[in-house]
Amino acid sequence: MSVLLETSLGDIVIDLETEVCPKTCQNFLKLCKVYYYNLNAFFNVSKDFLAQAGDPTATGTGGESIWSLIASQQGKQEPRYFSPEFVPRLKHRERGTVSMAVAPAIEGQGKGGCGSQFFVTLADEIDYLDGKHAVFGHVVEGLDTLYKLNDVFTDQEGRPLKDVRIRHIEILDDPFEDPPGLVVPELIPTRPPDNSTRIAEDEDPLATLPEEEAENERRKQAARAAALTLEMVGDLPFANVRPPENVLFVCKLNPVTRDEDLELIFSRFGTIMSCQVIRDKKTGDSLQYAFIEFDKREEAEQAYFKMQNVLIDERRIWVDFSQSVARLNTSWSNNPKMEPRLPRGGRGAGRREPTGFGGLDNLEATRRYREGATGDGARYGMVFDVDGGGRRQTRHARSRSRTPRRDRSRDLPRRSRSPRPSARGTHDRERRSSRERRSRERSDRRR
């Protein structure tokens, strides 16, 4: 009667003494049948002495007999251990002797005996174990695995630094009937029963990655660390946030290019939720870049491929996907004064608009600018917003079907296009005129 132990170091075949140790062999075989030993670790390995396993907790204090296991599953009480079967002729004479570990009697916890823990000897003539632990089998195949097990590196407590585990036990022959109430699990365990922090049994601690892959991994770790730092200081709502996929970043703009110019040009690719040229917070001058939010990611992708290096107001623009989450962070800031903007009017008045983050299914909602919304709710909440002086965009229903599917930059009205300044004085006069116009607009709003 034999069993096959498939370990992380190799296979071991154990021949059991079922005739002279029937109760011990029945306990061992039935524990194997219910996958009790699967993924158990050899938690105690002593060179030229023994290798011990069979404790799911890998501490040396766990484990129980099959009868105690069945009783606990049924909510009944049963002794944890059974009496060991000592046979005088079965001794620890040869390497590969398999014995049940006999637990000592502990005051207040009943008498000792055999549970589930067993060990395999790693040397010959260990006779001082005779009469103390119950021999019930011998290793007949896989002695080379025992040599490997004998040479593993261990810590001061005898636990291998790299886990050695029993991956599976195959029962080759079982002459015993199942105890009443024995239930075989439908699924084989896939996770170790103990919380080991050692080197995994399938992990190579000496393995090295190619230089390019190692550099990429270092950069990813540095990026994760930086993101975690930003989350701790409140600049990011959470470390795994990533920019939305429907927002484009447009730079190298002409300083005279306005929000409505960009919106008119990019609207041929789809519905634009927001379009704003970012301006200096103090002076209101254009910083020559903008963010354009589309309703769908596919529309943003089409605009990205079609508008790269297009001439707008005599400047070749550069288009890329946004890498910033500054706009999204306003509603997740740790500052309680930073509240989400609400539309003042229209259908969305009085309701908090959803704001989401790209990459997470439960936060994919994008803030919608309601038809007819005005005021602060229609602005694009970037960090460079001009307080009171920026253009406050109002969403009006317009027919997109009238917009031809071609570059509209050359078909814009003359007032929306600026001739290229021919001299420094002309450019200065235009800037002064622009500032005076914005000043008049502010005065009109206040009145």
Q: How would you describe this protein?
A:
This protein has helices spanning 22-33, 66-73, 143-150, 211-233, 259-266, 297-306, 424-446; strands at 2-7, 10-16, 40-41, 44-46, 50-53, 97-103, 113-121, 134-141, 165-171, 247-251, 272-279, 286-294, 311-312, 315-316, 318-321. The protein folds into two domains: 2-171, Cyclophilin, CATH 2.40.100; 247-446, RRM (RNA recognition motif) domain (Alpha-Beta Plaits). The strands form three sheets. Strands 3-9-1-2-8-6-7-5-4 form a nine-stranded antiparallel sheet. A four-stranded antiparallel sheet has the order 11-12-10-15, covered by helices on one side. Strands 13-14 form a two-stranded antiparallel ribbon. The protein is α+β, with helices and mostly antiparallel strands and 447 residues long. The protein is elongated. The model is unreliable at 330-423 (pLDDT under 50).
Sum this structure up briefly.
Belongs to the cyclophilin-type PPIase family. PPIL4 subfamily. The protein contains seven helices and 15 strands.
